[in-house]
């Protein structure tokens, strides 16, 4: 089975040894994605904007391997403050209003950088 990989060039991809997205046949797996600003730097402290940025990065990774947000069948959101669930959820709901996937949101103790509030994974099936 042919595999396609997409990379964003963030430092963790080479340090940890992973790609942003991997397509194997019709299935696409998008790795945990945080709100790295375009051009680098610290993410905004706004929970909604961080979630929105994660989803923008996921959307680009899907396009890089021939997919779109409409192909997403499952997301997982790892958040550092579950009390902000409505802000995270609002961004997710906007991105997937027309094609709601199965999803999970769980609170975690910390992410790779303390400024990061959310990390999102996505699985897609390109039909």
What brief labels describe this structure?
single chain; 127 residues; alpha+beta; 6-stranded mixed beta sheet
Provide a short characterization of the protein structure.
The chain is an alpha+beta fold.
Give a structural overview:
28% of the residues lie in helices and 29% in strands. The chain is an alpha+beta fold and 127 residues long. It has a 6-stranded mixed sheet with strand order 1-2-3-6-4-5, with helices on one face. Strand 2 and strand 3 (27-33) form a beta hairpin. The protein starts with a strand and ends with a strand.
Quaternary state of this entry equals: single chain
Largest sheet, in brief, is: 6 strands, mixed
> How much is the radius of gyration in Å?
14 Å
Strand composition percent: 25-35%
Set out the fold topology:
Blueprint: E1 3-6, H1 11-17, E2 21-24, E3 27-33, H2 47-64, E4 72-79, H3 85-95, E5 102-107, E6 118-125
Parallel strand pairs: 4-5
Antiparallel strand pairs: 1-2, 2-3, 3-6, 4-6
Helix pairs in contact: 2-3
